[in-house]
Amino acid sequence: MPSRADLDADLARLTSDMTLLANENAGLRRVNAEMLAALKYALPVLQDGLPESVDFDWTRQAVTKVQNAIAQAERDT
């Protein structure tokens, strides 16, 4: 049978692991929100294709938003 000290250590470790998991989960939610916002921003380009009169500044901004969200996701891993 495990000692009280062993049980206390296991409980402390579980509590610490739960906190770490919760923090990682919050980070993933933030990345998901950024990716969703970037995709929503880029969605009209995807839906309309590339019309003859493309707003290249808007397209660059959409690409930048997607790149930033990807970079943030890579930093968080």
How would you summarize this macromolecular structure in one to three sentences?
The protein is an all-alpha fold. The chain is 84% helix and 0% strand. It has two helices and no strands.
Total number of helices: 2
Radius of gyration: 22 Å
Number of domains: 1
Basic shape: rod-shaped
Distance from N terminus to C terminus (CA atoms, Å) equals 39 Å
Low-confidence stretches: none
Overall pLDDT level: 83
What is the N-to-C order of secondary-structure elements (H for helix, E for strand)? HH
Query: What portion of the residues fall into strands of 2 or more residues?
Result: under 5%
Largest sheet, if any? none
Give me the count of strands: 0
Which percent range fits the helix content?
A: over 70%
Structural class assignment:
mainly alpha
